[in-house]
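Q: Structure tokens for this one, please.
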Amino acid sequence: MIDFSNKINFLKPNIEIDYNKIDSLKNTNYESLLKLLEYRYKINKNQIELFNGYSSVIYSILKFLKLKYCFIYSPCTLEYKEAASNLDYEVRLINRFENLFLPIKKQSIVIFANPSSLDGTYYDLEKLFEYWVSMEATVLLDESLLDFSNNESSIKFFNEYSKVYVIKDLSEFYSNAELNISTIFSNKENIGNLRKFEPENKLSKFDIKYLEESIKDSRFKAISNSINIKNRIEIEKIFEDCKYVDCLFKSNTNSILIKLKDISSQEFIDMLEEKGIKLSNCAKYDFIDEYFINIYVNSQENIRKLKEVINAF
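A: Here is the predicted structure, written as tokens:
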């Protein structure tokens, strides 16, 4: 079975790690990792907090903020809605496919992924950000997929507004589903307050070493993005010519969202599975119906197999 449902980057950093030597590494205050993140993302290390995985960062920030209303621009990673609901927020969803400028309540939390989940859309947030500021909202911007693109980070807003937090799950781009390190970027004061509620030693030495060596591979981002873009375009061309496809969303990441016609997503997925191709059914996401599928970028060899199967329909 060739898997096009795996959201993890199919390319790997060029690293070699002797895990037998890791027990001897010191694991205090994460100074070396913070310095590498500082250099990689052009942000001061005092503006970075580390977390033990993606779910941890989501629950930690929502628990820390303790506000009443949470507005999530959806479709979005479902952990946000689950965490906010479990923490007794009043959760409201905004369908970003239809209207980004629906009203929010004053002094609420807004959650926006940029680039977005599933479709990989990158948004110019200038006007929307002006509205959030006017409503005194606390802004959580998820940039977990930004490394797949060459677009600008929202850390630029830190100088304009104090209540902005940028979240990054580092497992997807750095190609390790078991990498339990996520980050929050914010201004120095926000990070200082957040750190008061975080344990000192919360990250695995193995995860730290993997991420450090991955960031040190200075060519990885350029190579990864070049190949991912090229392969994504090839996949888009395959589906553009498919009789079952209504439209494709313009992606800036390794994820492509496709709307089908004359066939349900599950029927389409079943047809491909019979031919050894696995796709993702994204029906669980908000504002996604039974005619949507999403597919993740894969290798040239696997794309050739996909093309053979799709062209045979």
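A few notes: The longest helix spans residues 220-240. The two ends are 18 Å apart (CA to CA).
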